[in-house]
Amino acid sequence: MRQLTQAFLEVEEKLISLLEEVRSLMPYVQSLEDENLRLKRESCALPEKETERVIANAARIEGVAHDNLVRLYKDGFHVCHLYFGQPMEAGACLFCAGFLRRE
Ligand SMILES: [Zn+2]
Question: What integer best gives the mean pLDDT of the chain?
């Protein structure tokens, strides 16, 4: 095979595999976007009684040492102000993760 043809075929192969890789990321990107939308909706429209609950959670969190919060989170429980102490259904929570990073 001629050199240029060979080079062209190699580039084409690389592009195809790159495209496959990008496509495989698509569901992940979509789920992140869905999650982002849901979180935006939640944080914009927090009803008043929810706010009270969140403030109470914040007080409870203050009473718990950071290591215990990390352990609680790793055990699958929320440590964020929104859902403190509740089991995590999605396996991870952006609020919790953000909160633990800040601590
Ligand atoms: Zn959480």
Answer: 86
